[in-house]
Amino acid sequence: MAFFRGLAAVSRLRSRMGQDATTLGGVRWLQMQSASDLDLRSQLQEMIPEQQDRLKKLKSEHGKVQLGNITVDMVLGGMRGMTGMLWETSLLDPEEGIRFRGLSIPECQKVLPAAVKDGEPLPEGLLWLLLTGKVPTKEQVDALSKELLSRSTVPGYVYKAIDALPVTAHPMTQFTTGVMALQVDSEFQKAYNKGMPKTKFWEPTYEDCLNLISRLPQVASYVYRRIFKDGKAIAADNTLDYAANFSHMLGFDDPKMLELMRLYITIHTDHEGGNVSAHTGHLVGSALSDPYLSFAAALNGLAGPLHGLANQEVLLWIKSVMEETGSNITTDQLKEYVWKTLKSGKVVPGYGHGVLRNTDPRYSCQREFALKYLPEDPLFQLVSKLYEVVPPILTELGKVKNPWPNVDAHSGVLLNHFGLTEARYYTVLFGVSRSIGIGSQVCPPLQFPDASLFGFPSGNLDQLFVTQLIWDRALGLPLERPKSVTMEWLENHCKKVAA
C-alpha cells in the first residue's frame, strides 16, 4: 500500500476527530487499512519510488516558494526557529506537541499495537509507523520484533572495547564506544567501497539501521550492569518484545516496569529534526557516513546537559529538594526553594522548551502512567506539586517563553520508582530510544537525473547526494551545508538595510 494512502488515512482520521471527540471509530477504520504484508523492507521498496517522484515534483513546481525571513536574532540564537530541514518522520507543533507521521501521542496510544490489553504501544510499532507512515497490525509488529531479535547478536569485540574503558567512565561514553565498535560490521560501508549505485544506497543503510537498533539494548544493558551491578550481565529473553527484553537485561522484570519501558522508548524516539541529537545524526549522515558513525555523533550531542543529560539533572534536583525540605514539603516551602534555585543563577531543570509553548505531551502521558501505577510515590507527588508551583513563578520572572514542564521533568521519577535509581544512566535509555527516530529518517541518497533539481549545478552527483539515515538515503537529500557569516558581516548588512 502506498505511502500516500497512509497519509490519506491519517488525514481522514484527523478530520473525523475534529467532528467527533470519540476517536475509536476512526482508530478501528485506520487499522483496517493497514497492509497484511509482514515484511517491513518490502513495504519500503514499494513506497520509495513514489516518494522520490513526490520530492522531485515538489522541487520543480515549488522550489522558489519562500518559507520565511531570516532575522539577525535567528542567526545569533543558534538558528532557532529557522525552517531549513526536511524531516519526514515527525513534526513538532509549538502548541500541541509532537506528531509522529501525523499522529499525536494519545492517538498513537490508541492505534499502535500493545503487548497487553489496553497497554502502552510497542516501540516496534512506532518504528513501522515512522518508516512507512502506516499503522501496523499486531502481526506486523510481532514479525518485526522477531526480525530485530534475529539481528541482535553483538560481536565479542564490542564488549572488549567497552571493557578497555575505566568502569568510572560516564555511561554515555561507554555506550558511544560500543556503538563505534559496532561500526566494524557496517553494510553500507562495505557496499559503498564496492561501488554500489546510488539508487541502492538505501538498502545497506536499512540493514545497518535495523542491526543497530536491534543491538543497542544489549550494548546499553551491558554498560549498566558493568557500572552498577558488578559486571553481572543478564542474557536476553527471546520470548519478550524489544522494550521488555531491554528492561529484562537491565535486571527489571516487574510487568509495570516493562510497560514503562515500552512507553519510555516510544515517546523518546523522535522529536522532529532540529534538536541536537537528530540534527547531528542528519548532518553527519549527509556526508554519507554510515548509520553507526552518524548515530555515535548524535549520541555525543545527546550527552550534553542542555539536551539528553537533562533527565539526569532533573532527578538529582528533585532529590535535592526532598533531602533539604523533607517529604512533606508545603507549597510555600516549594515556592521558596524554586526561587532560591533561580536566584542562585540556576534553572529549574525539566521546565521550558526551545519550541513548545504548552505542557509537553510526553510529560502528560508519563503523568497519566504515574497516576495509574504509582500515585502514592513521594517523588511523583513532589513532581505534581512542582507542576502547580513552577509555571506561575517562571511566568512572573518574565524571561521564559515556555514555563511548562517538558519530557525530562517526569521520566526520572518513574524509572526511580521501579528501582532504576542511577540517574547517570538515564541518558543511555534516551539514546536507545532515539535510535529509532534517527534510524528511520536517515537513509541513502538516490540518483536523480539532474542535480539542478536541488539547486546545484548539473553533474557531480557523487558529492551531492548524501542524507539522513533510511529516508534520507532513499530521497537522496544533499550534503547539509548552511551558510555562516561573521558579526562584521551582520553589522554591515544591517547598516545597508537601515540606509
From TrEMBL:
A single GO CC term for this protein reads: mitochondrial matrix
> Which Gene3D superfamilies has this protein been placed in?
Citrate Synthase, domain 1, Cytochrome P450-Terp, domain 2
State the UniProt keywords alphabetically: Transferase
User: Which GO biological-process labels does this protein carry?
Assistant: carbohydrate metabolic process; citrate metabolic process; tricarboxylic acid cycle
| Catalytic residue list | H307, H353, D408
Q: Which GO terms describe its molecular function?
A: acyltransferase activity, acyl groups converted into alkyl on transfer
Alphabetical list of PANTHER family matching this protein: CITRATE SYNTHASE (PTHR11739), CITRATE SYNTHASE, MITOCHONDRIAL (PTHR11739:SF8)
Protein name in UniProt: Citrate synthase
